[in-house]
């Protein structure tokens, strides 16, 4: 089908040109000027017809695609999408779920297109990528990329010490399967990642809490747990801790690995966030490579959809971790592993990471401006830890916010022992900065009231 000669009418429109083009496209579809299946002009032709730059049209088509108005067919062009296949545009719903800790969305249609172009480029690998199993722990090509990705944090890391796992959760499950047996004790910070608690419960492990202070895990408290409970491993998140956002100072990292060395306790280092942190301290794996399992998930710094994590394993333990992956997941998805490698090698990953960091800065600034309470945050982190002000309690606050359409997580989800009066806010989950700002404003107003005055229960 030949492309239509459609040209949008922009003379009476205000705002960015790319949004005006997308709006005009939506109107012409609604009034029947453009019908489903009609082929649109190429981006280059439309840019020439309108006398604007190609990038503006590319952003307009990307915006229209996100609204479900058009679709691209590889090698054929761009078409008006059928109503049956169209999806409604993603708009703020009135319900703001700040419970899931996701990287914030950025608005860069050209970068988004480059990410999708990476998917198309995988076609060059043919049926071998689609119809063959790969070895557990990743093929050597992906492990080479993983080693390169980790090298800025772990200089000199060899691909022979790297395993590709099915996300951070899959990596933690595999490592704990290697290090423990049912009934063993594993210790962790007294506030810890809920996913780790879930795995420990599934593997029938006992958890021992290690005390924290305002700098993070306390090494002397770890030593005490080692003496009393004889744990088989320590799980910790020393950089941009979830949920408190604390980062362990360098001197404490040395103290911590010295305790681990003294008592012969291996460490599982969850390093999900350091790729987003400016000038992070050296990882524990750089200080004690013979006993630290370093897990670098791509979910926070690149994309949760990949389900890929790179694991630096102590010398001689790679096959054991790979075999644990074989037993639980068979293999890591070859498609997502290949896409992660493609994004990293072409530089797309670095650009995406930069956009996530820039959007995170905006959202942290919104917190500082709108929540005048005791909030812990850290550069690069898109979650914050709010200490619930009296006379509110965490339970009252969570319940009241849920009733008005805002979802948050109370400290109970993270606590191994007693839970403090605190909540975690995930800043990346709201669709955009405006939705986050609205939610923070509602929250601030609510916290400024007395709990009894904020309820309509009769």
TrEMBL record:
Signal peptide residues are none
Check the record and name the CDD domains matching this protein: AAT_like (cd00609), WHTH_GntR (cd07377)
Quote the InterPro entries the UniProt record gives. Answer: Aminotransferase_I/II_large, HTH_trans_reg/aminotransferase, PyrdxlP-dep_Trfase, PyrdxlP-dep_Trfase_major, PyrdxlP-dep_Trfase_small, Tscrpt_reg_HTH_GntR, WH-like_DNA-bd_sf, WH_DNA-bd_sf
Q: Name one GO molecular function term.
A: DNA binding
HTH gntR-type domain ranges (all copies): 15-83
**Which keywords accompany this UniProt record?**
DNA-binding, Pyridoxal phosphate, Transcription, Transcription regulation
Per its UniProt entry, which superkingdom is the organism in?
A: Bacteria
One matching Pfam family, short form? GntR
Q: Where is this region: Disordered?
A: 81-101
PANTHER family documented for this protein: HTH-TYPE TRANSCRIPTIONAL REGULATORY PROTEIN GABR
Q: Which family does it belong to?
A: In the C-terminal section; belongs to the class-I pyridoxal-phosphate-dependent aminotransferase family.
* This protein's name: Uncharacterized HTH-type transcriptional regulator RHOS4_30730
């Amino acid at each position: 089908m030949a492309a239509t000669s459609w040209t949008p009418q922009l003379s009476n429109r205000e705002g960015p040109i790319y949004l005006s083009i997308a709006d005009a496209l939506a109107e012409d579809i609604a009034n029947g000027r453009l019908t489903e299946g009609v082929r649109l002009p190429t981006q280059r032709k439309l840019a020439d017809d309108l006398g604007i730059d190609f990038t503006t049209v590319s952003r307009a088509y990307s915006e229209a695609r996100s609204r479900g108005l058009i679709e691209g067919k590889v090698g054929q062009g761009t078409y008006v999408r059928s109503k049956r296949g169209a999806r409604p545009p993603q708009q703020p719903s009135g319900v703001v779920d700040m419970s899931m800790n996701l990287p914030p969305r950025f608005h860069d249609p050209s970068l988004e297109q480059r990410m999708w172009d990476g998917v198309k480029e995988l076609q060059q690998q043919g049926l071998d990528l689609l119809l063959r199993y790969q070895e557990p722990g990743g093929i050597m090509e992906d492990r080479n990329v993983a080693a390169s990705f980790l090298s800025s944090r772990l200089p000199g890391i060899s691909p022979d010490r790297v395993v590709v796992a099915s996300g951070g959760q899959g990596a933690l499950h595999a490592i704990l399967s290697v290090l423990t047996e049912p009934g063993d004790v594993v210790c962790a910070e007294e506030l810890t990642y809920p996913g780790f608690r879930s795995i420990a419960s599934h593997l029938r492990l006992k958890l021992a809490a290690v005390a924290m202070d305002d700098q993070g895990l306390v090494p002397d408290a770890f030593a005490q747990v080692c003496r009393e409970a004889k744990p088989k491993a320590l799980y910790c998140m020393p950089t941009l801790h979830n949920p408190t956002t604390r980062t362990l100072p360098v001197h404490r990292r040395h103290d911590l690995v010295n305790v681990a060395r003294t008592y012969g306790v291996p460490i599982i280092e969850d390093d999900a966030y350091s790729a987003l942190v400016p000038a992070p301290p050296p990882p524990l794996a750089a200080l004690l490579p013979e006993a630290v399992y370093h897990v670098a998930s791509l979910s926070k710094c690149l994309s949760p959809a990949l389900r890929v994590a790179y694991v630096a394993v102590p010398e001689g333990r790679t096959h054991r971790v790979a075999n644990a992956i074989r037993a639980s997941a068979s293999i890591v998805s070859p498609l997502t592993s290949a896409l992660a490698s493609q994004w990293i090698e072409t530089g797309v990953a670095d650009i995406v990471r930069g956009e996530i960091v820039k959007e995170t800065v905006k959202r942290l600034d919104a917190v500082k401006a709108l929540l005048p309470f005791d909030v812990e945050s850290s550069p690069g982190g898109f979650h914050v830890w709010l200490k619930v002000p009296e006379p509110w309690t965490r339970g009252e606050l969570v319940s009241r916010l849920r009733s008005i359409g805002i979802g948050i997580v109370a400290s109970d989800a993270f606590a191994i022992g007693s839970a403090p009066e605190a909540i975690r806010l995930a800043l990346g989950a709201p669709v955009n900065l405006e939705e986050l700002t609205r939610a923070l404003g509602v929250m601030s107003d609510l916290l400024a009231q007395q709990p009894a005055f904020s309820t309509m229960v009769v």
